[in-house]
Structure formats: structure tokens, C-alpha cells
Amino acid sequence: MRWMVVTRFAPSPTGYLHLGHAWSALFAYESAKREGGTFLLRIEDIDPVRCKPEFAAAIIEDLRWLGLTWEEPVRYQSQHLDDYADALMRLRAMGVIYPCFCTRREIAEEAAAAGHAPHLTETEEVIYPGTCRNLSADERAAKLAEYREANWRLDVTKALTITGALTWHDRERGMVEAHPEKFGDVVLARKDVPTSYHLSVTVDDTLQGVTLVTRGEDLFRATDIHRLLQALLGYPTPDYHHHALLKDANGKRFAKRDKALTLRALRAEGKTQEDVRAMMTDLALTMFRQP
Ligand code: GLU
Description:
The protein has 10 helices and 10 strands. The longest helix has 17 residues, at 273-289. The protein has helices spanning 19-33, 53-65, 81-93, 104-113, 137-147, 156-163, 197-207, 222-233, 263-268, 273-289, and strands at 6-9, 38-43, 75-76, 97-100, 151-154, 167-170, 174-177, 187-189, 212-216, 239-243. Helix 3 (81-93) packs across helix 7 and helix 7 packs across helix 8 (222-233). It starts with 5 loop residues before the first strand and ends with a helix. It has 291 residues and is of the alpha/beta class. The chain folds into 2 domains: 1-79 and 246-291, 3-Layer(aba) Sandwich (Rossmann fold), CATH 3.40.50; 82-208, Glutamyl-tRNA Synthetase, Domain 3 (Glutamyl-tRNA Synthetase, domain 3), CATH 3.90.800. The strands form 4 sheets. A 3-stranded parallel sheet has the order 1-2-3, covered by helices on one side. It has a 3-stranded antiparallel sheet with strand order 4-5-8. The protein binds glutamic acid.
């Protein structure tokens, strides 16, 4: 059987798609089509506060308008919380996650008291100082009984002693050494949302048979964490292709504030699908021309 590439576009429905998203969606689509493969769409709607069903519907409409097609069904993460709970239970049985009862404020204070300012990373606000990792089994049980709910964190040091050193492959940058420890003990399930971006993206890419993960280079280092979760859970590792983010004419990343450059707004203005594709190509050419 021929090895078939499977890619996906995985937006979070927290707003309308802008040109930066469209660029990323096309990148994934073309990466599949070039090799006669399959393109999937996944709606990453685990956060009930920030995600809205009307944005999910708008994303689908806008992508269709742009001329993209994908293999049905669209996967909505909010409908698959059991899959993430299963993975979390396996990690718990392995002893590589622990409940954390700290508030954001306590974490910031603890980090400051230890003499270092909170570190900013791409996916987490601060590196967790490890307070709850060091609780005894009795203390943990007492707190679980008292608070009932906790954030579940990955014990990254323990996890790495199980898996050993890890690498993954990026189509642009070649073999990459994974250093998930740089992020500290990331949260894998929250009190209010029983999963997290890292956990659900890793589970879904496996369950959906994704063989090539394409996404913006802002998520490049997050792949280290996903690689560690794959190794712990016995999942295969897909190939990766992190692409440069499309920037606006001033060299800035597109953001929600760029209302005029959403696909909806451009369409309302009378732009065609070809116009929008041409706009993206122009911006990309400008970017690549810049030193
Ligand atoms: N849902 C993520 C986002 O919208 C992207 C996930 C991914 O491609 O891994 O930023």
C-alpha cells in the first residue's frame, strides 16, 4: 500500500479567520494535495469561554468560500472529551502527572520568592516552580478531598526518565532535539476544561491518522511537549512542517484586531477567492524579499 500523507488544519473558533489563518489552511491543504493525500479539518473548541459555535460555522463557510475541501467529518474536540480523559488516565497510571492546587498568583509569588522572575515561554505564562509536585501522597489525597478539583500537570523530569532523550523531524529544519523540560511541568488538564491544547492535539493527531502536522512556527517548540506525550502514550510520531507566519504589509503578525483582513470582511467588500489568494501571495513574496 502506498504511504499516504494526511494533513489537517486545526483552528480554534475564537474569532473569524484572517489572512494568516487562510495562509496556514492553504499550506496544510496544498501539502496534502501535492502528494495525492488527505486533508482534514479539526475545530479546536475545548475552551467553552473563548470558543463560540458561530465562529466554528463561519470558519467552515469561509474555508469553503476559499475553495478548500476536506474529508468529512469535521472533528470537534468538544465532542471527544472522553478520548482525552482516557489518555490522561493512562498517564496517571504511569505516575507522570500530578494534581496541582496552586492559583496563578501563588505560582507567580513562589517563582519570585525563589529569586527568579517568571519565565515567559511560548505556551505557558510562567514556568511552574513545582510546588505540588513535591507533596507527599497523604498531602495530595487530603488536598484532593478538600478542593475536589485540580489542574493536572505533567511531571516532565519523571516523564523524560521513562522515555529518554527524544527527537522529531521538521521538513524545513531537519532533525530537532526535543527539550520539553524548558517548559516545566505544563498543565495537561484544567479544573474548568478537562484537557488542554497539548493533550488534545497529540491525541487527535494520532486518532485521526495525521502523518504530517503543518502549522505556524509560533508552535515550533510546543512540538517538544507533543513528542514527549507521544513517547509516553506509545503513539507514532508524525512528520512536521512549521511554516513562517504570514505578516501584514507592515511586517506584523495578523491578529484579531485586524478586522478588515478577515475573509468575511474581504468577501463583503466584493473580493473574490482569487483576489484573496493573490493578496496572500503578494504578502508572502514581500516577506521573503525582506532580509
Ligand atoms: N488550534 C491551534 C491554533 O489555532 C493550532 C493547533 C495546531 O495546529 O497544532 O492556534
